[in-house]
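Provenance and format

Records in this collection were gathered into a single text stream. Each protein contributes a sequence line and a token line. The two records reproduced below are adjacent in the stream.
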Amino acid sequence: MADFKRVDEGTIVNLSDGAAEVLAHLCEGECQTYGSVLSWCETRGDCVHEVTCPSCGTKFILDDDDIAALERWTDEHGNALVCGVKDVA
């Protein structure tokens, strides 16, 4: 797992390694931004979510549980740090 300095590690303890990797990139790295979320869903409800860093173009692929956890984290902690994930409009 990444070394977190800006993000309180207590806030990410329940996140998967993949979700924590996204936060490490968006909140701890040089980019420090909100990642854009694009979702592809099948009719039966299975979805794949891509988080793209608008600063450098790095992409992460996540499942429903991970993206939901990142959205919750962003709502609770992202505004203070100006980083996290946002849905593409």
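Adjacent record:
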Amino acid sequence: MLIEKFYREDVIALREDLEALEQILASARQGEWKGLLEGTSELEERLARFDSYIVKGLKRARRILDDIENDVNARGLSSFGLLLAATALSLQSEARGLEASLMTMESHSPRETETGSVDRLLNWVRGIILPVVGRIIGSVWKILINILPAHSWKVKGGIGAAFPGLAEGELVIEFGKSD
């Protein structure tokens, strides 16, 4: 199998991070969330959506990894790799969306939301969920680079005119065969 030759360690690391995220969510469902959700329907609904989406994303990522590991056709690997990258980025987007929702809830008056609950969940997202999702994205990029070698790198940058001292940058990586 192609996967064993080139990037087996990256796939193992990715599987471990996917498992870690799943265990973190299972633990939160059993402990952390139970006490926090009493009487806060907005928070409960947002966490339920987050949980459902992440669980679906984890299943999708595992299916794609299985397809990558079982595929002996190098042409098929590129599409699996891109699907895996899109899935990882959607996990990050959902985690960032939860973070933004919690920040919005945190700004409400204490009567509208249980501030302590929101603060604890915000710390949980920032301190646990986002770092694990970041590791997942890192592993996906390592796999993607092995599947689709970059044929072109472009870097642009400059100092922002609108806000003095802020840098602006752009990195463009083109994968696949050059034309």
